[in-house]
Design a protein that fits this description.
This protein has 263 residues and is of the alpha/beta class. It has a single domain (30-260), classed as Glycoside hydrolase/deacetylase (TIM Barrel, Alpha-Beta Barrel). It contains 7 helices and 10 strands. Strands 1, 2, 3, 4, 5, 6, 9 and 10 form an 8-stranded parallel beta sheet that branches. The chain has a two-stranded antiparallel ribbon with strand order 7-8.
Length: 263
């Protein structure tokens, strides 16, 4: 069921997005999007609200779950949403970087064998607890992973990797499929508040336009990244408007994680 669009004061930004979608349609192409949400461990109110949006608009959501933090109630909560899938969000989402370095769990701050053992343990737990919902895709916490670790991911049974920003290559040298996110409605530098409609839509439109014009890999679907634990009311309202706006247009297609990362 597609809900009626919520009213937005930023008509210009939505109109610009509509014009970009029209350009895709005129070219006989279908813009593809996908939705990734990070940091899941348990059915907190934010997660319930996220799943309600997925159900209400019939839009797939790929949930990046922290293996160490999974609670016994999570599998049952996810089983009630037909359009959800699970990705592996590192192992414990624990920062091991120095205080003057960007946060990272999967950096070069520890022995590679220790990091890889944790990832293997985390993947095994996700398979055991969440079964067929699990897609063997790694989402590094803070979207960072040491380059030296990437060649070993295939040996852990992982087939996909998702970070942030347009991909440089569709696959790693070892055959891991890469599909990133490109739009984040949360302004982390401002303390985790909503980035604003104009800035968020500008990022969405910018990646779609770059794909259409061949400035980035046109085959990489445009990824929208959310964090259900951190959303304020304005962020939730924006996501509802975005889902409503895009679902009302048959020319836009939201992809399931199984389509983003086909086996």
């Amino acid at each position: 069921m597609v809900r009626a669009p919520a009213v937005s004061a930023n008509v210009h930004a939505w109109h610009a997005l509509g014009e970009e979608l029209a350009c895709w349609q005129e070219a006989g192409r279908v813009p593809t999007l996908w939705w990734r949400d990070d940091d899941a461990t348990e059915p907190v109110p934010g997660l319930e609200r996220l799943l309600d949006l997925s159900r209400g608009f019939d839009v797939p959501v790929a949930l990046a779950v922290i293996p160490e933090g999974i609670t016994a109630s999570l599998p049952a909560a996810l089983s009630r949403c037909a359009r959800v899938s699970v990705l592996q969000h590192g192992y414990a989402h624990r920062d091991h970087a120095a205080s003057d370095e960007p946060s990272a769990e999967l950096g070069s701050h520890r022995a590679a064998s220790v990091v890889l053992d944790e990832l293997a343990l985390g993947g095994a737990r996700l398979r055991q607890e969440l079964g067929e919902l699990f897609q063997a895709v790694l989402v590094p916490p803070w979207n960072r992973i040491a380059d030296a670790l990437v060649p070993s991911l295939a040996g852990l049974g992982l087939t996909g990797l998702s970070r942030f920003s347009p991909r440089q290559s569709a696959r790693t040298a070892q055959g891991i499929l890469v599909s990133n996110c490109h739009v984040d409605p949360v302004d982390w530098r401002a303390g985790g508040v909503f980035r604003g409609e104009e800035r968020t839509l500008s990022g969405l439109l910018g990646h779609l336009r770059a794909r259409r014009l061949g400035a980035v890999d046109a085959r990489e679907p445009t990824g929208v990244l959310t964090h259900h634990r951190r959303h304020d009311d304005d962020t939730w309202a924006f996501m509802e408007r975005l889902l409503s706006y895009t679902r009302a247009r048959s020319a836009v297609r939201w992809l399931h994680a199984a389509e983003v990362f086909p086996a």
